[in-house]
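Minutes, project check-in
Item: structure for the 112-residue chain
Input as provided by the requester:
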Amino acid sequence: MDLTTIKRPVFNINISEYTGLILDAGEEGVVKSISPSKYPFFNFHTDNIEDSYTYVKELRYKVESEIVYFEDFSYFNLSDLDNNIIAIREVVVEMVRLQEYPSRLLKFSDVH
């Protein structure tokens, strides 16, 4: 691929000083096909993983996993209308929260 021929639509979004997001539609005139990933490309943050899980279930989104709890964060996956996987995550600030749900803690090997 000749990098001098790359044209818009290419979007560069600065997230922070060291992090950015590039959205690239690819070469013009090339037929593209949708091939959803079975792994999330990005995630959305929530302050309450249980409420978020209940909310998306009530909206009848296609939830792809139960909530998975780790020591420092929790997440679950859902899919959009194109079957792309999106993660919803909560960073656990206090270990006290984990003590409320000891039976729900899963090891990484239990879910993969």
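Outcome recorded: Strands lie at 10-14, 20-24, 43-45, 62-63, 68-69, 73-79, 85-91.
No further action items on this chain.
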